[in-house]
């Protein structure tokens, strides 16, 4: 098995945590916990097990980000999925464009939507990172955001301050300069 195949296999392991909420769950603050799965470490041994993140932490992040969008745009996403793996937290938000944004997209002015969303994310950075820091108890050291218009998606990416926990999957490679 190649290093890349091994890396991809480890990334699909049960220690990558996911929480998905639909709009009704996000509005009520409810969310299902992650399914119970055996906890084993990198070599399958319990002594190297990575601590499991409760689903309610991921649900709190999804809910908090949806509520920020709803409060400041007047419309929030219809679905949110939050993933946490090692020091990387990713939230995928679906269905969040406003009527004005949809109109601009339909008229071919996608760049105007991208521009206003980038400005919004810059203005909201502290609020977004506070949601993640409060839920995880860890400091956010980097925040990035991107939207995609077809399909209607937004991705919020947070890099958390490293911990001493063993990584779920990791591949580090030196790249030669040309």
Structural write-up:
The protein has 178 residues and is an alpha+beta fold. The protein has a domain of 120 residues: 2-Layer Sandwich (Threonyl-tRNA Synthetase, Chain A, domain 2). 39% of the residues lie in helices and 21% in strands. It has five helices and five strands, in the order αβααββααββ. The chain has a five-stranded antiparallel beta sheet with strand order 1-2-3-5-4. Strand 2 and strand 3 form a beta hairpin. The protein is globular, with a radius of gyration of 18 Å. The two termini are 28 Å apart. The N terminus is likely disordered.
Name its key features.
5 helices, disordered N terminus, 5 strands, Threonyl-tRNA Synthetase, Chain A, domain 2, about 180 residues
The SSE string, one letter per element, is HEHHEEHHEE
- Top-tier CATH class of the domain at 20-30 and 52-160: Alpha Beta
What topology, given as strand order, has the largest sheet? Answer: 1-2-3-5-4
Q: Detail the poorly predicted runs.
A: 1-17, 23-52
The CATH topology of the domain at 20-30 and 52-160 = Threonyl-tRNA Synthetase, Chain A, domain 2
- Estimated structural class: alpha+beta
Binned, the helix content reads 25-40%
Strand residues, percent: 15-25%
From the N-terminal CA to the C-terminal CA, the straight-line distance is 28 Å
Sheet bearing the most strands, described? 5 strands, antiparallel
Q: Treating each run of at least 4 consecutive H or I residues as one helix, how many helices?
A: 5
Mean pLDDT: 77
Compute the number of strand runs. 5
Overall shape: globular
Give the name of the CATH architecture of the domain at 20-30 and 52-160: 2-Layer Sandwich
């Amino acid at each position: 098995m190649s290093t890349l195949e091994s890396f991809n296999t480890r990334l699909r392991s049960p220690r990558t945590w996911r929480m998905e909420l639909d709009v009704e769950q996000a509005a009520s603050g409810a969310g299902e916990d992650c399914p119970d799965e055996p906890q084993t470490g990198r070599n399958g041994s319990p002594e190297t097990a990575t601590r499991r993140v409760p689903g309610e932490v991921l649900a709190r992040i999804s809910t908090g980000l949806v509520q920020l969008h709803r409060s400041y745009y007047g419309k929030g996403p219809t679905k949110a999925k939050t993933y946490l793996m090692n020091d990387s937290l990713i939230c995928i938000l679906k269905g969040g464009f406003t009527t004005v944004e949809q109109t601009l997209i339909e008229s071919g002015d996608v760049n105007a939507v991208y521009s206003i969303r980038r400005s919004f994310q810059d203005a909201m950075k502290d609020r977004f990172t506070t949601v993640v820091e409060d839920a995880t108890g860890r400091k956010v050291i980097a925040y990035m955001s991107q939207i995609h218009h077809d399909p209607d998606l937004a991705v919020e990416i947070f890099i958390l301050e490293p911990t001493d926990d063993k990584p779920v999957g990791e591949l580090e490679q030196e790249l030669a300069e040309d």
